[in-house]
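Appendix C: a fully annotated inverse folding record. The material below is reproduced so that readers can follow the format used throughout the book. The structure is listed first as tokens, followed by the designed sequence.
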């Protein structure tokens, strides 16, 4: 894709201005709090948002709008999850559950790695009884830990396996519930940009063939590539706007966890800047 048009310089100026102070704040450490886990989770989300948004903007500047959309989707999910924690009846407990689910995910990941290793060991031409025994021992320990310490993440139905998310809901359902709770639009989870970004996150056919004519199965490659470039150019400001909203939301929610955070940044600086898109 060609470099973004000079007409988009103003949009990038806004994005650079939005991230300037958060970038400085992210170099500090979480503030002291009576809710240490919530504060830690918020600050980690803020830190991730700063990095993700900065990379998102850089990708757009270099013309890589398809890859930028993957980061936009990531910012959207970060915003939804942090919103769910923040709006829960007990945010500290919600943050603890969120963190525990992270530990659960990593443990399950290690479990799958060991399962693959055990399979490979059993299929090896020269099997190692010791290596197989070690894998089986570690897998038994993980299974015991998962069942003992993370039972809350079992699906309610017997034999139903494990939850796929910390909340037990998909991102879309979680966003819809949050929208209803906060008075937002019922379709808030289905913004066009983030629905399309989901396709690019998974390299779905809808992403790969976004600009292929509806009545064609193939196209002249240069024409197809030009159509993709044009789609990115036309959508750039919209992509920036939607991702910037998520970024500003995360920073605002994490504000009390950020050392040096200025409350007026959100109302007097960030929100007016968003309107300039």
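Designed amino acids, in order:
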């Amino acid at each position: 894709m060609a470099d973004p048009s000079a007409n988009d310089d103003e949009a990038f100026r806004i994005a650079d201005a939005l991230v300037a102070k958060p970038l400085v704040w992210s170099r500090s450490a979480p503030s002291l709090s009576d809710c240490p886990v919530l504060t830690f989770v918020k600050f980690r989300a803020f830190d991730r948002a700063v990095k993700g948004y900065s990379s998102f903007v850089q990708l757009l500047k270099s013309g890589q709008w398809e890859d930028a959309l993957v980061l936009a989707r990531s910012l959207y999910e970060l915003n939804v999850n942090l919103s769910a924690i923040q709006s829960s009846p007990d945010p500290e407990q919600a943050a603890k559950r969120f963190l525990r689910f992270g530990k659960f995910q990593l443990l399950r990941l290690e479990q799958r790695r060991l399962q693959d290793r055990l399979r490979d060991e059993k299929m090896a031409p020269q099997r190692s009884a010791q290596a197989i025994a070690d894998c089986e021992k570690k897998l038994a320990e993980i299974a015991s830990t998962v069942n003992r310490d993370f039972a809350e993440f079992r699906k309610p139905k017997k034999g139903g396996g494990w939850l796929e998310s910390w909340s037990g809901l998909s991102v879309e359902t979680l966003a819809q519930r949050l929208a209803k709770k906060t008075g937002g639009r019922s379709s808030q989870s289905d913004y066009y940009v983030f629905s399309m970004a989901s396709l690019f996150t998974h390299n779905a056919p809808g992403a790969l063939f976004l600009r292929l004519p509806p009545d064609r199965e193939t196209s002249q490659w240069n024409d197809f590539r030009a159509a993709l470039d044009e789609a990115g150019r036309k959508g750039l400001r919209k992509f920036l706007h939607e991702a910037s909203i998520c970024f500003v939301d995360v920073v605002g929610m994490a504000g009390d966890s950020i050392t040096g955070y200025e409350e007026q940044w959100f109302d007097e600086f960030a929100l007016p800047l968003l309107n300039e898109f």
